[in-house]
Design a protein that fits this description.
By secondary structure, the protein is α/β, with parallel strands linked by helices. The protein has one domain: P-loop containing nucleotide triphosphate hydrolases (Rossmann fold, 3-Layer(aba) Sandwich). It has 9 helices and 10 strands. The strands form 2 sheets. A 6-stranded mixed sheet has the order 6-7-8-3-9-10, with helices on both faces. The chain has a 4-stranded antiparallel sheet with strand order 2-1-4-5, covered by helices on one side. α6 links the parallel β7 and β8. α4 packs across α5 and α5 packs parallel to α6. It is globular. The chain binds adenosine-5'-diphosphate.
Length: 261
């Protein structure tokens, strides 16, 4: 169980998080929705300790995450893997080496030659790639893959960390709809099959509804919506709370306009 208790985070005069409290049972898949600037990324980064909240408490299975220091923070980041919008792979390294980097946890990935990895790690990395449908690309340079393929490699890299939690910060924001679907299905599969808790920030309410157990809406650094997805429709959420950007609104409105004769 992950317990986030009244965390706040200020960046100068900006209050990115304002008293956020969320309890996430193990094995849940949570979609975090909200406009740009709502605080989604800051929340995920606070859980992972890439940011340190100004106030509040985070505990995981009874352990205080904000009290961790040094090596213990790095160990926590391994148990709490992060996936980013821009994939964060090393483009000039091959896919397998990128996945093996997930075994290093806290060492410099580039400093260690591929052959230095024990056979068990290489087998684990190959298995993770196979699960993500990426084994045929194992020896290809990561930079030559499509965005959707790179994101699946990033999920494989997260998997070999043997995490308890995967935090995904806008994992599909740079992808076309088909690849977005594949990536969310992959996250759902590791959630269901491995019991890994997944918390993903998603711009699209529909995607969150389709793949997540629960949707949490953030606005101005506060939780303004929190509900199981079962029985929910996008319109229910959008009625309570406007998650769409103005630009998206404008284009949706244009689509609804009658075609000129
Ligand atoms: P979201 O992920 O929902 O788009 P963020 O968590 O990135 O939102 O940002 C929340 C607010 O905090 C925004 O106003 C953003 O500009 C601000 N913010 C985030 N990170 C920083 C930072 N490192 N320095 C200054 N302001 C930041």
């Amino acid at each position: 169980m992950l317990i986030i208790n009244a965390i706040s985070k200020n960046f100068g005069a900006t209050r990115a998080l304002d008293g956020v409290s969320i309890t996430v049972p193990s094995g849940q898949m949570v979609g975090l929705v909200g406009r740009s600037g709502a605080g989604k990324s800051t929340l995920l980064r606070s859980i992972n300790r890439l940011e340190t909240p100004s106030a509040g408490e985070i505990t995981f299975e009874g352990e205080s995450i904000l009290a961790l220091r040094g090596r213990a923070v790095r160990a926590w980041r391994a148990r709490c893997a992060m996936i980013f919008q821009q994939f964060n792979l090393v483009n000039r390294l091959d896919v397998l080496s990128n996945v093996l980097a997930g075994r290093l946890h806290w060492q410099n990935a580039l400093g260690i030659a591929f052959k230095a990895f024990p056979e068990a790690d290489r087998a684990r990395a190959a298995r993770a790639l196979e699960r993500l449908g990426m084994l045929p690309f194992a020896l290809q340079r990561a930079g030559t893959l499509s965005g959707g393929q790179q994101q699946r490699v990033a999920i494989a890299r997260a998997l070999v960390q043997e995490p308890k939690i995967v935090l995904a910060d806008e994992p599909i924001a740079s992808l076309d709809p088909m690849n977005a679907q594949l990536v969310l299905e992959a996250l759902r599969r590791i959630n269901r099959e491995d019991g890994i808790t997944v918390i993903a920030s998603l711009h699209q309410v529909e995607a969150a509804l389709q793949h997540c157990d629960r949707i949490i809406g953030l606005a101005h650094g506060r939780v303004v919506f929190d509900s199981p997805t079962a029985g929910l429709r996008a319109a229910d959420i959008e009625r309570i709370y406007d998650v769409t950007d103005t630009a998206e609104h404008a284009s949706a409105a244009r689509l609804r306009e009658p075609m000129p004769a």
